[in-house]
Write a structure and sequence with these properties.
This protein is mostly helical and 113 residues long. The chain has one domain: Aspartate Aminotransferase, domain 1. It has helices at residues 17-22, 25-30, 36-68, 87-93, and strands at residues 75-77, 102-105, 108-112. A hairpin with a 2-residue loop joins β2 (102-105) and β3 (108-112). The protein starts with 16 loop residues before the first helix and ends with a strand. The relative contact order is 0.12.
C-alpha cells in the first residue's frame, strides 16, 4: 500500500470466523495494530493509491504495446491488449487493467514484467 518505500503494512481478511480463529498465536505476532507513526504513513500512501495504480496500468499498457511490435518478441500475454484471447473478459472484469505482463522471446521462454 505504501508508495514511498517507508512502510510495511497489510491486512488479513477472513470470510469465516473459524479461519480467523484458526490463526491462533500467529495473530499475536503478525496481526498487531499499526503504531501511530506508521498509521500516518499508511494514510498518506492511501491518498495517492488511485493515482499510482492508474500510472502502473498506463505504463504496463505502453510496455505491452511496444513489446508486441518488437522483432525479438514472439508473443506478449497481456489481457489489456486486443490480441489477447480473453481481452473481452478482462475488460469486463478489470475496469482499470492489470500491470502483469508476460512475453515470449528467443532469449528466454517466458519473461514476467
Amino acid at each position: 500500500m505504501g508508495g514511498h518505500s517507508d512502510l510495511l503494512a497489510g491486512c488479513a481478511i477472513f470470510k469465516h470466523k473459524q479461519h480467523y480463529e484458526s490463526m491462533g498465536a500467529y495473530r499475536t505476532f503478525f496481526m498487531s495494530p499499526l503504531d501511530p507513526a506508521n498509521s500516518v504513513l499508511l494514510l498518506r500512501s492511501l491518498r495517492t493509491l488511485h493515482v499510482r495504480v492508474q500510472r502502473h496500468n498506463e505504463n504496463a499498457m505502453a510496455v505491452a504495446q511496444y513489446l508486441e511490435h518488437h522483432p525479438l518478441v514472439h508473443k506478449v500475454i497481456y489481457p489489456g491488449l486486443p490480441s489477447h484471447p480473453q481481452h473481452k473478459l478482462a475488460k469486463r472484469l478489470m475496469k482499470v487493467g492489470t500491470f502483469r505482463t508476460s512475453l515470449y522471446s528467443p532469449c528466454a521462454s517466458v519473461i514476467f514484467i
